[in-house]
Design brief:
The complex is a heterodimer of chains A (114) and B (289). With 114 residues, chain A is of the alpha/beta class. Chain A contains six helices and seven strands; from the N terminus they run E-H-E-H-H-E-E-H-E-H-H-E-E. Classes of the chains: A alpha/beta (114), B alpha/beta (289). At the A-B interface, strand 2, helix 2, helix 4, helix 5 and helix 6 of A face helix 5, helix 6 and helix 10 of B.
């Protein structure tokens, strides 16, 4: 399953900048390419203390921007190890990206293009 | 022109406490032609963080123009040591601002989580927010969720200032813990000497035609998806702070040019009005611990 572990990738517990989110682009492309047609990307928030709405917004641009205008290719995104408090920061961002949100387990959320 | 003398009152909370006829002189303007500037804090019994940031930004903008600027330190020893511990005197002295005091030793009496710190770049803000988070956790000053809230506020305010303000003197921020019984609290404040929120919003064609006031622009800025960019998903940071992080019992003040906005987390009432000039933008949040 294509997975992006934010802490393993950055070794930082707080992420806020759009520049850092954009730096994930090669990794996102590599992970999704490795999925052999499985169009689900897991973003693992293990060990993360803070991820700002701005960072998350830019990360969604990176992920959804792979095929502009082509909604069918936008991956489903699973957010794991994401506390209620953390996810609350992302609701408005998901709405702005026209993505639906669903709680699928403890600290586990699924977002996808509506 | 002669010397512009700005005299702060005994209780100096923010720029609104200063005489309007003194602070309407905007050091960002080309026609700011005073020979020198003197900011007199000698009468102050206390100086709150938004006032610290006004002193810092105003003095640095004056110094950046090559105009001599002098800061008269508070006569009360504990107020002077607070400002010294906060790092304000060092920041100003480094920029060539005259500080009329003898050496004041650092006391470390104040629970500074992040002293007054220059924010030059996005990557610097991200480094600082990680240090801030570690510092909060190490000192165990409150709950983990609150550490995250304080860090998010600092990060969003800092990133906004660095990315949008176009400040010739960069931005400055601080985080402090007040161990006030029975209501301990964090304050987080960030300010810049840039173009202000109204000018920043006007870069977006959606707002360029609006007859925006400074205070109306601040109100727009805390609404969802309002940004100086044309990207419809941006403009989340201040909205998130004002609407998700603020309640309960928290307080947000934003001063940008002649606009002032206050949001009370207890009543969730937001009020904006014309206020005294802040040459740039200053944001301050008060969070009970």
């Amino acid at each position: 399953m294509p997975t992006l572990n934010l802490y393993e990738t950055t070794k930082r517990r707080a992420l806020s900048s759009r520049d850092t989110a954009r730096s994930f682009a090669p990794r996102v492309n590599r992970e999704l390419a490795s999925g052999n047609g499985v169009c689900t990307l897991t973003i693992d928030f293990e060990n993360m203390a803070v991820v700002t709405p701005s960072f998350f917004d830019e990360l969604l641009h990176v992920i959804n921007g792979r095929a502009p205008g082509d909604r069918s290719s936008a991956p489903v995104i699973d957010l794991t190890n994401t506390s209620q408090n953390q996810f609350a920061r992302f609701r408005s961002v998901c709405k702005a990206h026209e993505m639906t949100t669903e709680k699928v387990g403890p600290d586990h959320w699924r977002i996808s293009k509506a | 022109m002669a010397t512009l003398e700005i005299r702060a009152p005994r209780q100096f909370n923010h720029t609104g406490d200063l005489p309007e006829y003194q602070v309407r002189n905007d050091p960002r303007n080309q026609d700011f032609d005073w020979e020198s500037v003197r900011i007199d804090l000698s009468s102050c019994d206390f100086v709150r963080p938004p006032a610290v940031l006004w002193c810092t930004i105003y003095s640095l903008l004056v110094a950046e123009k090559g105009i001599p600027c002098e800061l008269v330190v508070p006569s009360r020893h504990n107020v002077a040591t607070y400002l010294n511990d906060l790092g304000m005197f060092a920041v100003l002295r480094d920029a060539g601002v005259g500080i009329n005091h003898l050496e004041i030793p650092n006391t470390e009496r104040w629970q500074l989580v992040l002293p007054l710190t220059r924010l030059r770049s996005i990557s610097e803000v991200e480094d600082l927010e990680n240090s801030l988070m570690e510092n909060l956790e190490r000192r165990d000053l409150s709950s983990t969720n609150l550490h995250a809230d304080v860090t998010v506020v600092f990060a969003e305010l800092g990133n906004n200032a660095v990315e949008h303000a176009q400040s010739p003197i960069d931005a400055y921020g601080l985080v402090q813990f007040y161990d006030w019984y029975p209501h301990p609290r964090f304050v987080c404040a960030v300010a810049d000497g840039g173009i202000g929120i109204r000018a920043s919003l006007r870069k977006n064609p959606e707002y360029s035609g609006n007859a925006l006031t400074d205070w109306g622009a601040i109100e727009y800025s805390i609404q969802e998806n309002t940004s100086g960019t044309s990207d419809r998903t941006r403009g989340m940071g201040l909205h998130h702070i004002a609407n998700d992080i603020l309640p309960p019992n928290r307080e947000l003040n934003i001063n940008s040019d002649s606009g002032f906005l206050h949001t009370d987390g207890k009543t969730l009432q937001t009020s904006s009005r014309r206020g005294n000039l802040f040459p740039g933008t200053s944001a301050f949040i008060n969070v009970p611990a």
